[in-house]
């Protein structure tokens, strides 16, 4: 239990403890709850920073607990997990800040923030898990802890959405359990290793490994919202804004994408997967999802539903990156994991602000919103342009590497998909920007609140601005040493060798 | 030749009577046949050289059970008349005309016969000359503290069984009391001087008989259970004649009476545990005395329990 | 010294961008508006000074991000002049505009993009600047805010987006093939086959090539005058610059590209004339004239595609032509304001003279920059194989005639008539226009290689070959004017501005069954059928299943059934165990 | 009197067991069921004692005897409990047929009036 | 070891004689048993299997008591749940101070202690006839407790349960008779030594299994369980579902794997597997269609029992043996805790709303947050979501099934968990719906909610402490 594994445990427990304590807080103790939340988030940030530095310097972190004989519950921090844990911790801090502001006077906040922290604990767990079993455990914990958030409002629609969400995710979870059990029976405990662990089985169990990959993809695909399995994501939009941002940018969908990356790189190993011939179908599925998601988004008038479908397509970029053999595509995919998180969370903060401050939920009601909330809409615009892939923002960097990777790997059809998707993104984001900036605002907003000096509550404003700045930083300074891209290149180097 | 003939007829009558008792169209006649069956079984136990059991079967198996069922039947009939207002018609026998019922009946009959066949096939395959545990039992009899092997098995070799069994008894009475409030039979002794005088000497006789049976149990067929059965008979008579009402007024005493068996046995077990380190392992040599004490307590609670079972519920006006 | 020159290139791009950001700070807004023309100054200085080694790079990159080379210098020159004039012009023009701040914001951003695009040293920088210019110019098109501007803007934006995506994909192929991002070394390696069509189409959209041009006649008129001057003058050239930078014109014969360039170029030239003449709005006429002029430049590139070794001369000719067209078109657009505003006879005659000068220059009258450009281009026709040279020889003069025809139409529409007095015309339009006019007349001659052509141009036969297309065009114009009197109908109804675009728009409408976006007020369709319907279906089914289950359960409860099941189980067990026994 | 033939009583015991089970399942009246249970019990005890007789060295095996004695006591307890419970259920049934049933049989358990047990 | 039996038995007698101090007696017995169990666990962990010859006579003649890993685990589980129920029952029974409530409380404590004695006796004894007496004691106590409710449904269910229990016991007793006839002993170990294959023992095992299947409410013979468990008072149904039904299953394990292992053939084992799978599906489907919460939970018990019977087919193979044995029994433990928690929560809801019709129970999370949380946690363990005990059990069964190549086991387990998720979700969606005013009429004392939560936490925690349980279970397991 040296200091290294203690920091590892600390990262996990910082949000777990705050969550548990908040559960039992009385509803009225706002101040204490806010401080607890921010304290937890801050502590986690510090610990993750320490972890980041440690991993960068090459230190190994490991912690394991004998869950069942021959079945350890192990946490570890390698480059891959650090990427995801840093993203989720940073975004969690701002989402918490945002959520505190957003739920200023709504009921059941102790319950909300309790499950909120549990959800992030599960995400951190997924990120830091060092073997497949721990991943599965936290994966299911994520389902359980996000359900109460989705149904937080308790309205009939929310419950209906929650039911759909649970059906999809539990089905996925069951299939994943079968797959993990099957792999365990073939290959014993499956630690995450750089070049995959199934080398020994390649010859003897070829067909089974292919079937197993399909099961893994379906199981995790539900959370990564790959085309046929994405039904729950738009439905889960009934949740309050901080939750939907959590679902999209920080936790659930990211966990799914991260899961697929883990399976392809650290369980199967990229070369093995390619040799098994399982990557092309995955790439096709991702491609289909990208286009399908964008097309659906085109026809959604509800802002959050549009963003939901946009997430469906954006997450499949990450899957596409994993599905194309070669370091460049891998870099593109992995860096999009971070960029999409930053972009999408800004969009959702914006959507949340519009809903909270002006009471508008539909794109058709967004005329002239730029005048009333200039700063929020500016952040929204930056994120929207980033999403389209306009350079110098974050989205462009990942699209650039993805298409470069695709061209080097020789599947040109991928560039067509990326091009089509950028166009479709433009097709459903630019009208919003046009309405926001160019059309005159209506006389009276549906449910306007004024929050004193700033255009809206300072917490609701700070979050999107910071994330928008991060989007710009991730894009412009991409090639510099301190950027998500640099860290992802480190990962790709380790995965694909010198 | 004669004994085989006797056994054959006895077995045939027992089986036939059993069928009649259960499937007789008239329930009352069925109950009477059931009681007769009990007595015949007691005869069978004698034939199988099990005198202890014959006593118990006669007193408890047919006597008490028969009485319980009869009183239950009377109660049900009275309630049906009061409720439905029509005379207690002949309960519809098994031959109701409903076709589906007949089909399932025939099927069940066939399956039961098949089961019987299987059981017979298994039973007949048992080794003719099975050794059984007679040899070990007789070998250990001297240091079991009693000479009657059945009592030795009951209260020493398998004392744990008996402990649980007395527990079952107590549980039964607790269960019955939890369920119902007892109904006092309406007999009023003042109009029946003859019955009163009869009881006045029969009851003490029965009590002495029970004590004798308890004492003799150590060496000859008898023992706590048979004595208890006799005591129960006496109690039933007392209840029937209304004498018992006064006796049962003081609840605490009755309850202690009921639990004395379990308490003494439990405490004795615990003391023995402390003394010899084995649960229910009587200190060498004193087994006989321990067994007698336990049997005495058991006698009281068995008699009281079986007697109050007849009452069919908790005494007292509340 | 090197640091100063390096920072100059950064300054050229950064000043307009920074000023755009400063616009958002309320107290400084007025100052920035006034200083907008100066934003182009650093670029102009950079272009004229042409300091060697004007490179700038980000600290962590090894290659230069911004770099000035010969081609860039020419482009930078006329673009900065054009932005300077338009910026100055806009100050006066936008005096009464309800929302000037937004115009300046987009104008400055477009300027930054344009300069960045010209100075870009590596592919990402180029693409970033290109995208910035695209989006900012869309803002300019939307500026007027009425339904017309919105429609034009939407089409412009859509096509700009398609263009950008094609370019990005093409650039990726190039970068992968050339294994470098710096433009200079891009073509040393193998030529990437799939990249060519992508880049052709991508930059074609920007340059208004045939079939990809229909956004231009809608967007340029919709934008305010200074914006359309910049759009037609500088931004359209970005497509040209893209081709020059990224197509391996100098390295290898590209017959496919050659044919497309020449075919599209000539097609655009004649289409421009045909539709342009029929237009009523002077700005649309100018837009169509831009299309045909770009067509002519494309033919030049076509020649280079056939004969890579002649690339140097052709490049010079193309640069001259581009500069000439930019400045001429810019001055023509800027002339609309003063033409409307001319009140006194002196002002009217002065404007008339200016207009005439600009029109003649554009038409290629002798001794004008147009003639110079045309001769430079014609000189290179000789490089083409036999058949092509002859065809071009005939067609090019006809194209010039077409241009003259359009110029005549334009002059007729714009000529300051005495009776027509514009309401309080905005002041301060004259100087920038005249300045640009002077730049046009003088500017072209300053270009390298222009002076050598002068003597050839003055030779009598060259004089005649330059003159007859003009006269022929003038005759056609006179004939057309007379015909006009009998046929009063408005030709533009038959040939609406944006020709193909209108057809495509109607097709799209029918396809997506959606009402035009502008009044799209109803609730969007949610993606799943009415949830209530599905709920009802499911619950009816479930109810039936539930009742079936409960009555099976209750039947299981009857004792006879229990008996049967129990005995069966017992029998089954015995059978299984017995079989196992032996 | 020579010993009885144990196999005869063994079969008798099994017969009683079968008859008892048949009646338990077929009969609907509670008392008949309770009697059927007693008969089944007696059948088993008969089988036990027949086995005891089989090993009649000097005397029949005392262990089954003890078991049967315990069995009989347990049977009586069972009968007592069953009768008390049957009485309460029958009381329920009886006053259900009367007009004012004090508590309607809840639909879920779906208990048919005629099949009480 | 003997304190485990004498303690609660004497306490029961005293609780009956002095009704006022019934609860005191229960806590006293809890203390005695607690100490006895802890010392037993330490002894077993230290010195391996503990055995004790009652009254000193030894196997053939006397009765042996033996505490191996499995027995100790079940004894600990019984103690834990009994203590929880004792804690819960005190305020539960004193809800209304009407005469029947007092009457109910008077008789609840002795019956509870008798049940506890019976369970302890059942888990310790090695003697078939003694097990019969323990089974009878267990049956009577359970029936009496069910009938304690006093309402019509409870009485009918109790009577039906009594008939099933008695007939099943007689089947079992006839089986014991045949075993005694064949091997002249009723001790498990000795029977295993002397068990010649032959029709007698075949039929004996069939008889005993037939009886015990009825008592364990396996699929076709489960009809008596739902009404009995649903209509009994909450603490009683908790005890019944968690322990009483498992007692019969425990006995089946002993019979099939220790007394007569020779008969454990793939054919017979597959029959159990089929019945188990049918139980899972049938129980879950019925749970989905129930409109009352307690009936839903009762049918869930029928389903979860199906999982336990999956142990039999998985024990046939060589390498699946460990996973099957430990997985099945871990599932037994986790289900016991989870099911008790759920029934206690159902009791709270019944107390607070006066009814348990699921459709009208909106807003449990607002009114009874702790109970809702306990229900959620128990649901997590029932469905088998990690890191709960249910998950660990299902995982071991699943991996054993896959290692044995028996695919249908994996399919059944997954479908079962999904169906379980479905009927748990039915309740949880009600929990999060906004409370309709007027549904929640009476407050629920905190102890009742606390005990439910504690047990739910144990059910989930059991997953994390999985390896400790497995090590204990593996001690003295039924393999050569």
Give a structural overview.
The complex is a heteropentamer of chains A (498), B (318), C (582), D (117) and E (480). Chain A is an all-alpha fold. Chain A has helices at residues 3-23, 30-56, 79-102, 109-128, 132-150, 156-187, 201-204, 206-224, 232-235, 241-250, 252-268, 270-276, 279-298, 303-323, 327-358, 369-372, 374-388, 394-409, 413-438, 458-476, 484-496; strands at 62-68, 71-76. Chain A has two domains: 1-264, no CATH class; 278-498, no CATH class. Chain D has a single domain, classed as Orthogonal Bundle (Helix Hairpins). Helix content of chain D is 70%, strand content 0%. Chains in contact: A-C, A-E, B-C, B-D, B-E, C-D, C-E, D-E.
Task: Give the key terms.
heteropentamer, D: 117 residues, mainly alpha, Helix Hairpins, disordered C terminus, E: 480 residues, two-stranded antiparallel sheet, 20 helices, 2 strands, globular
Oligomer, anyone? heteropentamer
The secondary-structure class of chain B comes to mainly alpha
Stretches of chain A where pLDDT is under 50 for at least 5 consecutive residues are none
Q: How large a portion of the residues of chain B is in β-strands, by DSSP E?
A: under 5%
Going by helix content, strand content and strand pairing, the class of chain A is mainly alpha
Q: What is the number of helical segments of chain B per DSSP (H or I, 4+ residues)?
A: 12
Q: How much is the average pLDDT of chain B?
A: 84
The total domain count of chain A is 2
- SSE order of chain A, one letter for each helix or strand: HHEEHHHHHHHHHHHHHHHHHHH
Terminal Cα span of chain B = 62 Å
Relative helix content of chain B:
over 70%
- What order do the SSEs of chain B take from the amino end to the carboxyl end, as H and E? HHHHHHHHHHHH
What low-confidence regions of chain B span 5 or more consecutive residues with pLDDT below 50?
86-96
Tell me the strand percentage band of chain A: under 5%
Report how far apart the termini of chain A are. Answer: 33 Å
Mind telling me the C-alpha Rg of chain B? Answer: 23 Å
Number of domains of chain B: 2
- General form of chain A: globular
* Total number of strands of chain B: 0
Please give the order of strands in the largest beta sheet of chain A: 1-2
Mean pLDDT of chain A: 85
Gist?
The complex is a heteropentamer of chains A (498), B (318), C (582), D (117) and E (480). Chain D has 117 residues and is an all-alpha fold.
Fold blueprint:
The complex is a heteropentamer of chains A (498), B (318), C (582), D (117) and E (480).
Chain B: H1 2-23, H2 27-47, H3 51-84, H4 99-124, H5 134-140, H6 149-157, H7 159-179, H8 193-216, H9 224-240, H10 244-247, H11 251-276, H12 287-311
Chain C: H1 2-22, H2 29-39, H3 41-49, E1 55-56, E2 66-67, H4 70-93, H5 100-119, H6 123-142, H7 147-178, H8 195-207, H9 216-222, H10 225-246, H11 255-277, H12 282-306, H13 311-341, H14 345-363, H15 369-381, H16 386-414, H17 430-446, H18 450-458, H19 460-486, H20 491-494, H21 499-512, H22 531-557, H23 559-581
Antiparallel strand pairs in C: 1-2
Helix pairs in contact in C: 1-2, 1-3, 1-5, 2-4, 2-5, 3-4, 4-5, 4-10, 4-13, 4-17, 5-6, 5-10, 6-7, 6-10, 7-8, 7-9, 8-10, 9-10, 9-12, 10-12, 10-13, 11-12, 11-16, 12-13, 12-16, 13-14, 13-15, 13-17, 14-16, 14-17, 15-18, 16-19
Chain E: H1 3-17, H2 22-47, E1 50-53, E2 64-67, H3 69-93, H4 99-124, H5 128-147, H6 152-183, H7 188-194, H8 199-215, H9 225-231, H10 234-259, H11 266-289, H12 293-309, H13 311-315, H14 321-353, H15 364-367, H16 369-383, H17 389-404, H18 407-432, H19 446-464, H20 466-474
Antiparallel strand pairs in E: 1-2
Helix pairs in contact in E: 1-2, 1-4, 2-3, 2-4, 3-4, 3-10, 3-14, 3-19, 3-20, 4-5, 4-10, 5-6, 5-10, 6-8, 6-9, 7-10, 8-10, 9-10, 9-12, 10-12, 10-14, 11-12, 11-18, 12-14, 12-18, 14-16, 14-17, 14-19, 14-20, 16-18, 16-19, 17-18, 17-19
